[in-house]
Amino acid sequence: MEPDSEKFWYVHSCDLDVGIQVKIGTLDGRREKPNYEDLLKDPLLKHSGLHQASCSDLYVTCQVYSDGRELTLPVRTSYKSFSTRWNWNEWLTLPLKFSDLPRNAVLALTIYDCYGPRRSEPIGGTTISFFGKHAVFRQGLHDLRVWPNCVAHPEHTPGKVQDPGKDQMQRLAKLAKKHRNGQMMKVDWLDRLTFREIELINENEKRSSNSMYLMVEFPRVEHEGVIYSVVWWERGDQNEYEHHTSGNIVRIPDPEIALENLQEAKHHRLARSLRSGVTDKDLKPNLSIRDTLHVIIEYPPTKQLTSDEQDMVWKYRFYLSNQKKALTKFLKGVNWKLSGEAKQAIELLGKWAPPDVDDALELLGPGFTQPEVRRYAVERLSLVASDEDLLLYLLQLVQALKYEALDSVDMSLCDVSHYSSSDTSGGTGQAEDTTSEHSAQQDKMGSSAGSTGANLTRSTSSSLEESEAATIQRSPSSSLLAEPDSSDPSAAATDSVLLPELAEVETELDLASFLIQRACRNPTLANYLYWYLLVECEDQEVGLKHDAKVREMYLWVLRRFKLALQQGSREARLTRMSLTRQHHFMDQLVSLVKTVSKESGNRMKRIEKLQGLLADPENANYNFATFDQLALPLDPEIQVTGIIPERATLFKSALEPCRLTFKAAMGGEYVAIFKHGDDLRQDQLIIQIITLMDRLLRRENLDLRLTPYKVLATSSKHGFVQFIESHAVADVLRTEGGIQNFFRRHAPSETGPYGIAPEVMDTYIRSCAGYCVITYLLGIGDRHLDNLLLTRNGNLFHIDFGYILGRDPKPLPPPMKLSREMVEGMGGAHSEFHLEFRKLCYTAFHQLRRHSNLILNLFSLMVDANVPDIALTQHHQAEHNSCVAPCSCKMVWTQASDE
């Protein structure tokens, strides 16, 4: 069976705007001659085709019926002279397209003979439905029984007649169809003999039967060498049709199939016993085995090793211990349930060549649950990854917390449960002195909101505190570690004793401790870690008990993070205060947007309402126009002091996102889009991967002028998107007539190519190449000219990543998202700029493919995140890394060609 035989390739009929063709083949069978009595009654029969010695000049008409009514005018075959056999071999084009066919459409074929001047008589008729019982368009050859001396009609002349015991033609046709569809094993020599015998049986059936048979052929839909089935579907139709969920193969239950194979288990234990370690240390592979080991090491992280490959890696583990890329392959083959084998693996782990960051990230995935392995991976990250690199992986590292041993995470947090009351106290000692002004401002805003906004929806922060109070269970010793009274003179001494305990917990280097430790030193890391954790902690419909435990774990980590900030340095305490103010700002902004969305009237009235609420602090319970310096959650390096009300507006879309212009503390403005009612986590993931790819390419001295704008999901229902001043390519074509006209208007140059500034043209070529390669690798779908944006400097970039990893609302989308208008902007397909574009695509593709393991490991860590397309792919496919398959096959399928 071919590798892709189990795949069902199909296309919906409503998406095929192509005319239907039917091929009229041969007419077989005996036609009764008129007797002398008939000739006496009708002398014209002597001049008709019935009385001819040779084959008469027949013709066939085709007509489409639905519900017993005619849908089209008849279409007939052209004139053809026959000698010994009726064989038209002619394709007829029906006046209907695939998209116009109803579900119950029937093809009616009538055979006529010339009877006299301007007169013809029907020889017979037959019908066949266009779609089978599973709503699949028929393909290939079909023998239809002809009902004599009548015109074809769907109710009286069925071409397929069930006649068990006599008619073997239909039974053999069904078997041939199964063979063609790959449901039978194909043996060339046997197939040739079988089909020859089938032809003989069909000929004998037709010869022995008193009926006539008309052979017709339906077209096949083929694209790039793959045959597609046409499935009937009408847009907006929700009817369900029965279909088989399993094949016709009989399943025989085997009660021993799930049991352990005792022979294999014994062989495994003997091969990996402690005794083998003595001889394996000096074991060296020969040339053939060394090549096989090299191939195994180069496997992508998504490929599962066979048992033989695992045994080979284990056998030569000491030889491979100096190759850092072999570590993950070695650990994948360890049976951690066997204590002796696990002990050997842990001992060898410390002697192995230290892996790179991409392999360390793989060790934090769901396939490695051993605590020692995960702590080793965290240790490698702490030594190799800088804060700048950590920002690129932080989203995945937060998701990797789900694969930590939940019990061990909870135990690591019990030591800090005594800080529960200090979490909301506003700090003690020096922290209270340094942030008193901010606390007073926060209390003022909180009291104002409480007095006039009692009917508002509860904020996320309040619900979070209630959730923490409900889920956190104190240990019996927590009463002894309760926070001392502020009036007690020994309070400071007690705090000084407890702080080292917290430090000891953080130096254990579990993943949660590592993230908290690094975030306390870097405000930018702290900002994003806070919002990533907060999104995971928000209330969701929990369907599984494990999900509830994971959410409880995230609550613990977030609480510990806030306590670590509050008990940390002065900068950490200021970061804690800034995050609290950010949270309050987001709650008020969400409340304001909800109020605006409830405003009746058109969009202009809602814009006026938005600007009015932003300008008047009394109406919105918060002074959005002017507030104390605050780090913007979207980009914490930007300090903002207010929103310009008159610059706020709403976009023309279903959700009407807000465009907000912030006043920067250092001068200037920062424009961001706030979306409410939209889940931005998928866009956030794709932008993070694009940012990573841009960083990787720049390290190779390849600047493709990408525009990785910032996206932050502050909840599953709202978030921020950085606004880049640009124009949709569709608008550019509509107003300017072409991309080059747009550049000539905004960046003219008399000496530049096509009258355009050279740097603008270079930026356009590079950005086109970068995004073409990236969208191809990530399988970005739903690409059209409205979600391609163009800046005046020549930067082209994509937005709206609603379809990723190969999903697309349109059937058969092109793999490379490159339109004709984009090529014309380069000067055409034969210009030197298009040649440069192709070279850049080639270089970028090979550079990114060298980092395929890093990108695939980052996606693997996101398989259990609530990202729509990843969750959808996981739902339909059983393998844990199935969502990474579309990206994996494009990045590593020809990796050996680089060598």
UniProtKB/TrEMBL annotation:
Annotated EC: 2.7.1.137
Nucleotide-binding listed as a keyword: yes
Molecular function in Gene Ontology: 1-phosphatidylinositol-3-kinase activity; ATP binding
Residue ranges constituting the PIK helical domain according to the UniProt record: 279-556
The C2 PI3K-type domain, residue ranges: 36-179
Ranges for region Disordered: 420-493
One Pfam family recorded for the sequence: PI3Ka
UniProt cross-references to InterPro entries, sorted A to Z: ARM-type_fold (IPR016024), C2_domain_sf (IPR035892), Kinase-like_dom_sf (IPR011009), PI3-kinase_type3/VPS34_cat (IPR057756), PI3/4_kinase (IPR015433), PI3/4_kinase_cat_dom (IPR000403), PI3/4_kinase_cat_sf (IPR036940), PI3/4_kinase_CS (IPR018936)
Occurrences of domain PI3K/PI4K catalytic (ranges): 644-899
SUPFAM superfamilies assigned: ARM repeat, C2 domain (Calcium/lipid-binding domain, CaLB), Protein kinase-like (PK-like)
Low complexity composition-biased segments: 482-493
Record protein name field: Phosphatidylinositol 3-kinase catalytic subunit type 3
